[in-house]
Structures are given as C-alpha cells and as structure tokens.
Amino acid sequence: MATKTIYGIYDDEELLVEGAKKLKAARIRVKDVFSPFPIHGIDPIIGVPRTRLAICAFIYGITGTSLAILMTWFMMVSDWPTDVGGKPSMYYYMNWPAFIPVTFELTVFCAGHGMAITYLLRCWLLPGVSPKNPDPRTTDDKFMMQIDARPEQEAEIANILRSTGASEVTIH
Amino acid sequence: MNHVNSNNLMYDFTPTSKRNLWIVMGIGAILLILGLVFFKPHQACDTHATDAHAAVAPHADAAHAAAKGEAAHDEVAAAGHHGEDYTASLNQRVWANLLVNSFFFGCIALAAVFFYSLQYAAQAAWSVVFMRIFNAVASFLPIGMALIVIILIAGRAHLHHIYHWMDHDVYDVASPKYDAILAHKGAYFNDFFFFGRILIFVAGWVMYQRWATKNALLEDQMTDATNNWKLNLKNSAIFLVFFGFTSSVFVWDVIMSIDAHWYSTLFGWYVFAGMWIGAIITFNMLVIHLKSRDQLEHVNPSHVHDLGKWMFAISFLWTYLWFSQFMLIWYSNIPEEVVYFQQRWEQYRGLFWITMLVNFVFPMILLMARDTKRNKSYLLFVGVLILIFHWCDTYLLVMPGTVSGNWNIGLLEIGMFLLFLGFFTYWILRSLSKAPLLAKNHPFLEESLHHHI
Fold first, then answer.
1. Distance between CA atoms of B37 and B34, rounded to whole angstroms?
2. Closest CA to B398 of B140, B118, B101
3. Strand A4-10 to A32-34 pairing
4. Domain chopping of chain B, boundaries
5. How high is the pLDDT of residue A86?
C-alpha cells in the first residue's frame, strides 16, 4: 500500500539519473520525474513505456489522407465535375496527380494538429487547467523525482536520495 | 578515448573480399562482352521504334515550330537527324550505358563529399563516428568525374551521338541540320564556355575532396583539433555554396542537355536528390558490412537509426521532386515540356512507373517504423532494392534521349553495371582500409559516442 509520497529535488540532472539508477537497483519504483528539459536516458531507468504518439500520428495521417481523397473526389469529380485545362474529369483516377498536393497537405495537417492536441491532452496542458506539476521550480532550474512508498521504506529512500546529491527531500 | 578499442579501428580489406569483388567484376566483364557479341540492332522493334518516333519526336518538333514560328527550318532539321537512325547502333548504346554508370557511381561519390561537408557546416556531432566512411565513398569522385569528362570529350570528337547539340551544323543556318532552338542556346553550348565550366566544377569538387581527406588524416596527428575544426567549418561552407550552384549547372550540362530542346527548372535538384539517396544507401551498406565484421563498435543503435532516417527522408525528398516536376508538366500540358514525359510514357512506361513506385513505396512502408530503421535486415533489403531502382532512374534520365525506343536491360546493361559496382566497391573498401575507422581527434567525438535518441 503506497501511503506516502516522497519528493527528491536535485540541482543537476546527472545526479538525478544516478539517484534513479540507485533506486532501481534497490527495487524501488520511481513514479515520475519532473524536469525543465528532457533528460536523456531516464526513460528506461524509471520504466516509462515507449510513447504511442507515433501510432496516433499514423492514424491521424491516414485519416487526413482519406478525408482529402473523399473531399477532392466529391468536390471535383462527383458533385460538380470540374474541367481544368481540358482534362477529362469523369473519374478520380483521370486527374489524380492534381489531387496529390491537397492530399499531402491534409495528411500533414491532420497528423500535425492531431499530435499536438493529443500531446497537450495527455500532459493536461490546456487553457484553464491547473498543472499536475507538484513544484513550479521544476519548470525553471530544479529536477524532481516522485516516489510512492510504504511508510517503512521512507528512511531508506530518503537516504538514497540524499546520498546521491538531492538538495531537498520532502515527504508528504 | 578509453571506451574505444583501438586495435579494431583498422579495416582489413581481406583477400576473400578482394577475390569476391574480382568475381563480380569478372562476371560483369563476361556479361558485357557477351552483350557486345550478341548485340542485335532492334530489327523486331524497329517498327515500334519508328512508331514512337512518329508519335513523339515530330510532335515535339511541330510544337516547337508552332511556338517559334519557324516551321520550315524545323521540319528540315527533323528530317535531317531522323534520317540516319544512330539510336539503334551498338556504339550509341555502349556510350549511353557508360554515361549512366559513370554518372550514377560518380555522383554517389559527389553526394558523399557534399554530405561530409554538410556535417561540418551544420556543426553536427552525431555523424562524427561515420566521417571516415563518408571519406571513403567520396574517394571515388576523381574517377567518376574523369569518366564523365572523357564521355563529354568523346562526344565532342563525335565518337558517339549522346549530345545532339555537339554537332556544329545545328547552329549553321545554311545547313540542312539547322535547329533554331539550339541556335538560340548556342552561346550556352559554346565549346570553350561548356568545357571550361565543366572543368572548373570538377576541379573545385575534387580539390575540396582531396583537401578534406588529407586534412582528416592530418587531424589524427593533432593534439588539439579545435582550430582544424574551425578551418573545416569555413571550407565546408565555401564548398557548399560552390556545390549548390555548380551541381545544378553540371546536371543541366551532362544530363539535361541530352534532351537539349527541353528544360525543367527543378531538374538539378531532382537529380541531386537522386545522387544524395545513392550516397546514403552506400553509407548504410558499408555500416552493415563493417558491423558484420564486428567493427565500428563505437556505432550504437542510435547512429544506425539516424542513418536509416536519412534513407527514409531523402527517399521522400526524391519522390517530392520527381512528382513536382511531373505534376507541373502534366498539368500545364505545354507541348515542348510534356514531350519529355510523353516519350517516357510511350517507350518506357513500365520501367518509368515501377522506378517511381519502388523508390517511394518501399522506403515509406518499410522504414516508417522506429524498429525497422534499427534493423539491419530491413535496411539491407530496402537499401539494395532502391539502389537498383535509383540506377534505373539514372537509366531513365539518359536512355530516352540517346537510344530512344531501342532500349533493353540486357546482358550489356547488367554486365556494365556489375563491372562498375565491383570496381566502385573495390575502390571505396580499399580507401576505407587506409585510415582508422574513427576520427579520434575530432572535437565532437565524445558527444558523438554518447549519441542517444
């Protein structure tokens, strides 16, 4: 039963990585790390699963492609066949090269916006929401580790954090 | 550098590898000779070829004539150079193939020089572990360029008929071969100007390549290479500006001038994208080869991943430019422009579309995922496949304008390709074996060794 939350604050991200390695060696799970910038190599140490954003991007992209094909087919071929430069427009395939730029743009548009919105939702960074970040200093120059632990582990964890250079250790 | 095992830094070009490459070259030479011996001028295809001429060439000339209002002259010109059908001759076919291969492999080396200098200009660190590989591929540059210059000089000596505009009669109003469109371009195709600029371009590139390779070896003796890096930064920036202008003009001169009536403003970039992807594939293949020998232990999966990303990205760049050129010409449908694709459509349709689709679809589907870009089998499969089809792309640049419908990828073509491939590989592996595989004094080496994505 995790009843306590321990925060270890570091001044340097390399010290934090060392601390995370020590904790992992002691079989203690780091719940999360807050940092002003991405820390290289921290993901496998604290067990963050690989991002699925790429899969989302692919799905958004395919959606954009389909929408664009549907749109160009409906507007330019089905609903109001448009004669451009005397090219036959009875069927989609006859004019497909002309529709490629639109298809490309909509694919990129949907993939890009979809990814950005997904990312913001996932991080809960929307207008009006209060941040999940427990300490605003981690958006500036501090690096923080969050650990959920049983009360009897408290001392051990605090010890590891301090011994690896944590400048502050707080228990909530 | 404690974590780099210095014993394993020399590439050993083993007798087995040499023997295998000699076998490839031998097979190539035998196929080439067989191709020469059994060459048959396209009797069976003659009607086809003539049809194509009828469908394509006069149409173009008529279009030009209409555009320029010089119908009389052009009709005579058309009759003049379609009277004797040099496009079916063995001589023309051999020279055209020589140009395809010289250009394909020579420009892989050229793009390797470009990519090497790009690393300095971009102040990139990830690629430091690959610098010697870039240098090795670039070492083929003098040979490739020498071959291209020889082909151009041979054209001027009328040993072949690849460059129609090299016939001086086309500029002469009194001659039956007079060609008004080429006469307009006479100043650009002036012998002194043409050969002068080609020599300046080639000399500039080769000078930078020689200097860069020599400097890379000098760097190994330095204790502090920071100033040397700054020198490289400056020289690579100068080279890139020079290369940016000259590569495009070089491509117009060597390739686009085959279809001298036709022009496309983004042709230079399109061909450049083709040579760039060729170089990237070659780097990937070399890394896979060295890794299979348990060398390059300083190259980690992130480096391999990044090189795979380049293969993915430049395939898209190539397709983007291919399509941009195609779509604008297809859409506007101006006769003097569209004739270029009309000829490919009439005479090369299958190869034309397969080349485009393979070079686009295979890298896109197979290299999209992160895991495949880190997987040597995927990289090898896609790399070999698109290397072959980028060769086909170069083939499609040269052949329609030189042998018209009398083409065939037969013994002659495969033989000469294998001969060049074997020699090219032999040459770059020999260069690779001459210097350590790691630029040990490069200021960014430490950062590169820690590369992680």
1. 5
2. B101
3. unpaired
4. 12-69+91-161+186-449
5. 81
Whether the per-residue pLDDT at B223 is higher than 60: the answer is: yes
pLDDT of residue B58 exceeding 60, the answer is no
Beta bridge partners of A8: A145, A169
Interface test with A, best of B305, B324, B330, B364 (most A CBs within 10 A): B330
Residue A14 structure tokens:
């390399």
When pLDDT is cut at 50, 70 and 90, the band that residue B62 belongs to is very low
Q: Quote the pLDDT of residue B71.
A: 38
CA B284/CA B417 separation, integer angstroms:
20
Q: Which phi and psi angles does A83 have, rounded to 5°? A: -90, 110
Q: Rounded distance, CA B372 to CA B366, Å?
A: 7
DSSP A116: H
Predicted TM-score of the model (pTM) = 0.87
Helix (H, G, I), strand (E, B) or coil at A9: strand
Q: Are A134 and A147 in contact (CB under 8 A)?
A: no
CA distance B357 to B393: 11
- Residue with structure tokens 């321990």? A6
Spell out which residues of chain B touch residue A54, defining contact as CB-CB under 8 Å.
369-370
Q: How far is A111 from chain B (nearest CA, A)?
A: 14
Q: Where are the domains of chain A?
A: 4-36+140-171, 53-122
Say what percent of chain B tops pLDDT 70.
89
State the Cα angle at B225 between B223 and B231, rounded to 5°. Answer: 150
Does the pLDDT of residue A143 top 90, yes or no? yes
- Collect all residues of chain A within an 8 Å Cβ-Cβ radius of residue B334: none
Q: What is the three-class DSSP state of B89?
A: coil
Q: Please say whether the beta carbons of B240 and B121 come within 8 A.
A: yes
Closest listed residue to residue B27, CA positions, set B426, B420, B428 = B420
Taking the CA of residue B327 and the nearest CA in chain A, the distance in Å comes to 6
The CATH number that domain A4-36+140-171 falls under is 3.30.70.120
pLDDT reported for residue B103: 97
**Residues of chain A contacting residue B333, judged by C-beta atoms under 8 Å apart:** 85-87
Q: Looking at residue B315, what is its pLDDT?
A: 97
Identify which of B331, B368, B452 has the shortest CB distance to residue A98: B331
Q: How far is CA B195 from CA B141, B155, B162, B331, in A?
A: 18, 12, 16, 36
- Residue in A40, A85, A97 closest to B326 by CB: A97
**CA neighbor of B61 nearest in space, from B82, B83, B46:** B82
d(CA B112, CA B117): 9
A83-88 average pLDDT score: 79
pLDDT at B78: 42
- Give the residue from A139, A142, A120, A132 showing the smallest Cα distance to A5: A132
Tell me which H or E stretch contains A148: strand A143-149
- Whether the pLDDT of residue B151 is over 80: the answer is yes
A159 Cβ neighbours under 8 A, 6+ residues apart: none
Give just the sign of the alpha carbon dihedral B280, B285, B288, B289.
Answer: negative
Per-residue confidence band for B322, with pLDDT thresholds at 50, 70 and 90: very high
